[in-house]
Amino acid sequence: MMIVSHRITVGEAVYASGAHSRLVELRTWSALGTPVNTARITLAPAVGLTISPEDEVVVEVGYDDELETIFTGSVGAVDWDIEHVTVHASGAFHKLVGARFNRFYEKSKAGDIVSDIAGLLDISTGSVESGLEFPAYAFSGGLNAYDSLRQLAQRCGFDLYADVDDQLVFAPYDAGETHPFQYGVNILALHLDHPTDSITGAEILGDSPASHGQGSDSSSWLTKKDVKGSAGDTGTGVWRRFDAAVRTQEDAGRIAEAVLDALRSRRVCTLDALGSPTARLGDAIEISSMPLDDQNGTFKITSVEHRLDIRKGFFTRIGGLEL
């Protein structure tokens, strides 16, 4: 029988499994659609605890002596009660949400732009890939830095998120690990939704760029020809967008492909399972042995929630998108 273990580091203090563990309840959350990774940690008794805003927080959970990091961040707020203390921690992406820039880049690759913004905000980076190269790219103060980088990621067909070590990831999806979940073994509950197809094609209209054949180095006034890229069926059900950052037919086509892939109808799952501390953004899950065959499949992990408390034990809720 495996025993659930934990180690929580807040500043210089460590709260670990054992007879005198202070942990009452733990919840961590990360998702591709949510900017900031969060953790809520309840400790008791309150006497003797020393916790300050901005203290570094590292949460590790696992079985027996094998612990996995599931959250890294810093203290954002502390709720003090007579009997317990609740720590609210968040990842470094809160800096992206709070920052706004007016910046202009020339002949820059997407990855270089991301690295520059991360450096300005002192955010550590993990996997940052090059992506598309833009002859000109502007950040407007009308959007916060996270939304601006998310738009850049969507243009490249990339994911943007912070990993469990609180490092920025800007890269195309490539499942690092596929985690098996089997009915009757470690699956507690499963909900599947299959939306109907509403978008059948995508079309990107660029900023009348460079003269045709001259690529991104030419000036916009040199041509009267449109820059347009498309993917899928561009009859009915087409998604169209004007994108001033697009200056070449090639880039318009690539962005249209990325947009269509993101919008195409795929099954969505919500899986409740026995605690799986190794499941994380960037990975995949494989669901098998379900009573109905169409409930099985392989899904990209889009969200992970871990919960651990003294009453219900350790379980993980995973959101997934069919691959």
Provide the structure class.
Answer: mainly beta
Q: What number of structural domains do the residues give?
A: 4
CATH fold descriptor of the largest domain: Phage tail proteins - horseshoe like beta roll fold
Low-confidence stretches: 218-223
Instruction: Write the H/E string, N to C.
Output: EEEEEEEHEHEEHEEEEEEEHEEEE
CATH superfamily of the largest domain: Baseplate protein-like domain - beta roll fold
How many individual helices?
4
CATH hierarchy: architecture of the largest domain: Roll
Q: Portion of residues in helices?
A: 10-25%
Topology:
Layout: E1 4-10, E2 13-16, E3 23-31, E4 34-43, E5 56-63, E6 66-80, E7 85-90, H1 94-98, E8 103-109, H2 110-120, E9 125-128, E10 133-139, H3 145-156, E11 159-162, E12 168-171, E13 178-182, E14 187-193, E15 201-205, E16 228-232, E17 238-242, H4 249-263, E18 268-274, E19 284-288, E20 297-309, E21 313-322
Parallel strand pairs: 9-12, 13-19, 15-17
Antiparallel strand pairs: 1-2, 1-5, 3-4, 3-20, 4-7, 5-6, 6-7, 8-10, 11-12, 14-18, 15-16, 18-21, 19-20, 20-21
Keywords:
Phage tail protein beta-alpha-beta fold, 46% strand, mainly beta, 323 residues, 13-stranded mixed β-sheet, 4 domains, Phage tail proteins - horseshoe like beta roll fold, single chain
Describe it.
By secondary structure, the protein is mostly beta strands. It contains 4 helices and 21 strands. The model is unreliable at 218-223 (pLDDT under 50).
